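Researcher: Next entry in the queue.
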Amino acid sequence: MISKILKRAAATTLAVAVMTGAAFALDISGAGATFPYPIYAKWAETYKKETGNGLNYQSIGSGGGIKQIKAKTVTFGASDMPLKPEDLEASGLIQFPLIMGGVVPVVNLPGINPGELTLDGPTLAAIFAGEITKWDDPKIKALNPNVNLPGKAIAVVHRSDGSGTSFLFTNYLATVSPTWASKVGANSSVEWPVGLGAKGNEGVAGQTKQTDGAIGYVEFAYAKQNKMTFTNLVNKDGKTVAPAIKSFQAAAANADWGNAKGFYLVLTDEPGADSWPISGASFILVYKKPDSAPAVLTALHFFDWAYKKGDQMAEELAYVPVPDNVVDLVRKQWGEIAGADGKPVW
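Model: Structure for this entry, 346 residues:
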């Protein structure tokens, strides 16, 4: 079922009635990042079977999720680009990580198998800057001496919508390439020097698969579900690593969540021989003083269930569950959410 869900458009909505016992309850309504959509979909399916409660989540991109929560049209927003503490304070929001994973470059090169091609950060930045335009460029060949690289043109595919996946990807490129940092920068939306735009991780995956010679970037679950050819990367320690839950976990291992104000933490270009260099968390955004305390409480019950029972499902889709000590910090933060009477919701 999950593979069928992933083939739908980016704005696919998981919508089922939410019920508790014999009485109707409030829908759990959310919108935002496409990065975690595969695991949200799987969790929603299982949660519905176990509890009768459902989820209505619009996979529209992190930028859209931030806009919708700030407009108060949903109970929670989801973003892979964490909001800075001052932005959270100004908006009356809190944020917390719900799941972690990795962003991977994917290519459409007939005859090249997944993990057969290796790139490093500066070369990847040069490709997306339009400075490297052919697959048999000497810089790519130097990294892949035993790969028969074609002389065809490189077709860059990037996100067209405001995207936390783009934030992680461009944050990495800006970290490893001073030229990219000065000319393009890191954000959920940037002025891409070259390439074709597509909406959502789904759109980038689809556009890359149908464009000969293409290179794009997607959350790893999309690469797996769509049987795409992903590349390896050379990490900060100079080691060639493949995208896998082990390498995402290695990148997350050094994360200091306890000292990250507002849980603001970006996990790109982390040290460690096994670390995947484009890793990150996906965050939930809710109001400290929500208009509907029952709606937020319903959502918190779902998140609590995901923390308690969702780890195995997450790992099956190559996501990294949030460590238990971080979950404890998150639940403590939930105590800051209060209803109109001033009493804690959780």
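Model: The longest strand covers residues 93-107.
Researcher: Noted, moving on.
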